[in-house]
């Protein structure tokens, strides 16, 4: 019986390794490089993913001004490109980004049309597994058939027209990936995602099943012995659903019928001759044994184009008044009324029990009144609480003021690493899928707390307040802060956005 189980695990491990890392016959085709020293970025406008690209492009035009740099995306980041360019020009007058705006819906637009974040909010473990298994293929094939085809042609036309030596891709922007793949262009991926998210399947001895927790499992690392059967079930369920997804199969079939031979290719992204540049680094995640040669660890790929004082002197001055808790649950999250009420009550408890202040990025989901704000009115009037629908200052710049004491976030890859790289401990409030893994990682590294685990994805005010206060000034706060700062120092040693820019510049120099 035990031998049979080992055999099954070995077969499944081989399946995952093949799925994630196999080299197809396409790799026999030599990738095509275009004009020497020309770079084209193709990304979605979702800040959770593209901030790593924006950080890289800012370093590219600052340190390699002789390159011709093009950036194509949606209107949502046009102002970011403009701001990056203006600040880079102050350091180097030759700095320039050729902006190319795409016509069509962004990933967030398509996801919002399908129900947005509220649709994918789900508990960790088996009870949320079905939602997770359906979510991933839907995100991979997020665009409607017509929008995908249109964006494919737009990005393919840009590649032909600009003829770049290297195309820089966002792993979530599938139409552009299809364009680069079908034109067989030299390309590189930049990602904020954890190494284990990308490489658990190629670790030895089938470790993806018995050692590494499933992405949406909510299990700690290493997986406890009693939870291994559950973890195996969740991993096999997800892999099977992913490989046999009718959403992907139907999208691929339709696109192939409309002139895209290699559409939504699940294997292409792991070609050994296509580099990945990762914001994640080994010390800032679960231990990992095997890192393929085409994976380059960059560390801090964070957008930090100017001091907070330059971006908003008024906000920077306010932050300096007292230790500040930043509550920022990502660019795509909106509060329904029930979560707004719970968060408001938690913040009121924290402000009542400490001398801290709170900067709360708060956007409503749907229409409801402001009754949730009643417990907070006295703190708003006293200037100890600010509610902002959007932050006009890069989070990294806020962190660098030295006055952000706690980062409260949802566990998105970008938020997670921004806090770690800044040396700031976190309270992580995961709501779906991979967010649960980042919450567990924060606790494993000793740099954060995941409160209300048994209630996830819901919260209660008492649990939130207790976690906020513990990270702010509790018994573990000093240790968490020391751990975070140690990880930040290690991350800086990798080179960050400057290293990413150098790697891309080297690829660009090999063009025609």
From TrEMBL:
Keyword check for Repressor: no
Domain of life where this protein originates: Eukaryota
Q: Which Gene3D superfamilies does the record cross-reference, listed alphabetically?
A: Glycogen Phosphorylase B
Q: Which SUPFAM superfamilies match?
A: UDP-Glycosyltransferase/glycogen phosphorylase
What InterPro entries has UniProt attached to this entry? Glycosyltransferase_28, UDP_glucos_trans
Q: Which GO terms describe its molecular function?
A: UDP-glycosyltransferase activity
Q: Which UniProt keywords apply?
A: Signal, Transferase
Secretion signal, residue range per the UniProt entry = 1-21
Q: Identify this protein by name.
A: Glycosyltransferase family 1
């Amino acid at each position: 019986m035990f031998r049979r189980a080992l055999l099954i695990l070995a077969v499944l491990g081989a399946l995952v390794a093949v799925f994630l890392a196999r080299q197809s016959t396409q790799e026999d085709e030599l990738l095509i490089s275009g004009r020497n020293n020309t770079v084209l970025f193709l990304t979605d406008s979702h800040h959770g993913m593209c901030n790593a690209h924006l950080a890289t492009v800012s370093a590219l035009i600052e340190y390699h001004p002789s390159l011709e740099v093009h950036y194509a995306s949606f209107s949502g980041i046009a102002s970011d490109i403009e701001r990056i360019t203006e600040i880079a020009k102050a350091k180097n007058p030759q700095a320039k980004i050729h902006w190319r705006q795409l016509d069509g819906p962004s990933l967030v637009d398509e996801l919002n049309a399908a129900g947005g974040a509220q649709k994918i909010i789900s508990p960790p473990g088996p009870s949320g597994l079905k939602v997770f298994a359906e979510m991933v293929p839907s995100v991979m094939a997020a665009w409607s058939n017509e929008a995908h085809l249109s964006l494919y042609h737009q990005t393919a036309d840009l590649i032909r027209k600009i003829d770049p030596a290297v195309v820089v891709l966002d792993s979530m922007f599938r139409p552009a990936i299809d364009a680069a793949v079908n034109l067989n262009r030299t390309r590189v991926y930049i990602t904020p995602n954890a190494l284990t998210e990308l490489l658990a399947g190629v670790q030895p001895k089938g470790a993806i099943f018995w050692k590494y927790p499933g992405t949406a499992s909510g299990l700690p690392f290493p997986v406890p012995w009693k939870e291994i059967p559950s973890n195996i079930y969740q991993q096999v369920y997800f892999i099977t659903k992913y490989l046999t997804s009718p959403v992907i199969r139907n999208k691929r079939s339709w696109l192939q019928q409309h002139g895209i031979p290699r559409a939504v290719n699940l294997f292409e992204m792991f070609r050994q001759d296509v580099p990945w540049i990762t914001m994640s680094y080994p010390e800032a995640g679960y231990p990992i044994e095997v890192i393929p040669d085409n994976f380059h660890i960059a560390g801090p790929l964070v957008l930090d184009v100017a001091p907070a004082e330059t971006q908003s002197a008024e906000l920077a001055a306010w932050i300096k008044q007292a230790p500040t808790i930043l509550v920022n649950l990502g660019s795509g999250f909106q509060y329904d009324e029930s979560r707004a009420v719970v968060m408001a009550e938690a913040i009121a408890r924290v402000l009542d029990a400490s001398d801290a202040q709170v900067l709360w990025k708060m956007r409503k989901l749907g229409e409801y009144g402001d009754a949730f704000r009643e417990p907070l009115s006295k703190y708003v009037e006293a200037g100890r609480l600010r509610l902002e629908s959007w932050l006009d200052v890069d989070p990294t710049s806020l962190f660098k003021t030295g006055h952000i004491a706690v980062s409260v976030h949802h566990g998105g890859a970008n938020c997670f690493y921004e806090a770690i790289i800044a040396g700031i401990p976190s309270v992580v409030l995961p709501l779906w899928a991979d967010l649960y893994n980042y919450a567990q990682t924060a606790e494993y590294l000793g740099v954060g707390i995941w409160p209300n685990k048994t209630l996830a994805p819901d919260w209660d005010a008492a649990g939130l307040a207790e976690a906020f206060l513990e990270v702010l000034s509790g018994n573990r706060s000093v240790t968490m802060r020391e751990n975070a700062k140690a990880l930040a120092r290690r991350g800086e040693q990798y080179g960050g956005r400057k290293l990413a820019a150098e790697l891309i510049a080297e690829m660009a120099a090999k063009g025609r």
